Amino acid sequence: MPDSTIRSMEKTYIVEHLDPELGPWSTLEYLAIAQESREAGATFCLSSVPESLDLPEELQSAQGFQIEHRSVEDIYAGEKGRVCLLDPAAAVELSSIDGETFDVFLFGGILGDDPPRDRTSELRKKGFQGRRLGAMQMTTDTAVRVTRMVIQDQLHLEKIPYVDYPEIRVDEHEATEMPFRYVKGRDGLPVMPEGMVDLIKKDSEKGFGDLL
Q1: How far apart are CA 75 and CA 147, in angstroms?
Q2: Using an 8 Å Cβ cutoff, are 86 and 133 in contact?
Q3: Which residues 6+ apart lie within 8 Å of 169 measured at CB?
Q4: How many CB atoms lie within 10 A of CB 79?
């Protein structure tokens, strides 16, 4: 299949929400994923959203953001072959050719736990085919961003520029090291959702568990 055909096939990026709540960290990540997916001509869906979960207004009204109360397993019952699970435990790395096989890419939120918890194991048990994004822990928006760069932009996973464990300067005396891998922007800085640096600075003393 020609590269142009792969790029033109609409892709869907789904985060299966695995928490009963949604914190400010996840909100900013989901807003970034929605915006970037829309700009790339793709769809972003947050699945398994509890009926009782009160989503922030800015997320509910975000363009390119879809809410689904059903699980991915229910949505794609009988069509699991369309779905690629981004799984840190998978034996095969994601490559651009996977765009020929899959049109749905599934992420288990929250990927950016520190220390990492195997949240994806719940989805792995459902029988979805898995692909890996390397050995480094990524935030959820970074994982979606990297997947889109590989699948839609046809970049090799190892050719994407990264920033590992960047330091965020809280003030002139203190810096916080982020325990994740990020995509490196054109300015040489890690690509983060709008407002994330301010959130990190504000809550740096709380630890990442409270942010996530």
Answers
A1: 21
A2: yes
A3: 175
A4: 10
Q: Tell whether the model's pLDDT for residue 71 goes beyond 60.
A: yes
Q: Tens of pLDDT along 132-146? A: 999 999 999 999 999
- Measured CA to CA in angstroms, residue 21 lies from 26, 53, 76, 100 at distances of 10, 7, 24, 35
Distance, in Å, from the CA atom of 196 to the CA atom of 75, rounded to the nearest integer, reads 31
Rounded to whole angstroms, the Cα distance separating 109 from 141 reads 10
What are the Cα distances from residue 184, in Å, to 45, 88, 160, 210?
25, 21, 8, 26
Mean pLDDT of 3-19: 73
Q: What is the DSSP letter of 135?
A: S
Residue with tokens 């288990």: 108
> For residues 131 and 87, is the Cβ–Cβ distance under 8 A?
yes
| 30-58 exposure pattern, b = at least 16 Cβ within 10 A, e = fewer | bbbbbbbbeebebbbbbbbbeeeeebeee
Residue 116, strand partner residues = none
Three-state DSSP class for 66?
strand
Q: Which residues pair with 12 in a beta bridge?
A: 43, 104
Assess contact for 24 and 114: CB atoms under 8 A.
no
> Residue 171's closest CA among 195, 205, 196?
205
